[in-house]
Amino acid sequence: MNIQEARPSDAPMIASVLQEAAEWLASDGRPLWSATEIGLERVLRDVSNGLFHIARQDEQLAGVMKFELEDAYFWPEVLPCTSAFVHKLAVRRAWAKKGVSTALLSYARTRAQQLGRDHLRLDCVADRQGLRNLYEGFGFALHSVVRIGASSYARYELSTATL
User: In the prediction, which pLDDT does 162 show?
Assistant: First the structure.
């Protein structure tokens, strides 16, 4: 699995992966991202800012992830320059259960450590048990469950010192 920072030319494919994941979740009664959050304009802006990373296998785009160095929305209490954050982790359905998520999380953990960040953090809707199992199986520890608006979010952290 080859993982690298996305280029602007990758933005349409990244948006496609995110839309596929959103449609799959919505069809199962678990809507997640709004069309604006995963639309091409937003994705292109984020890619241009170096936030998206992509996983390819044999030139096929298998998964994507947004890797950020701050998250004041979900983690307002975290001190600057101490953590990195994963958002919008999505895998093409054809690549589900083939280790793409694990590869992306491993990449994020290594990148966070290389940047001198003590923790890798992420969040998910608290009732997404399958996703929570994935994160816990990777080694993330539940930090807390917080309520933001009408939803509850499970916040997870992973020490980068365990590499």
Answer: 60
Residues 5 and 52: their CA atoms lie apart, in Å, by 6
Distance of CA 123 to the CA centre of its chain: 9
- pTM here is 0.94
Q: Is the dihedral of CA 52, 26, 56, 42 positive or negative?
A: negative
Residue with token string 């048990």: 129
Q: pLDDT tens, 112-154?
A: 999 999 999 999 999 999 999 999 999 999 999 999 999 999 9
CA distance 146 to 103: 27
Strands, E assignment, the chain: 2-5, 52-57, 60-68, 83-91, 119-125, 141-148, 151-159
3-state secondary structure of 134: helix
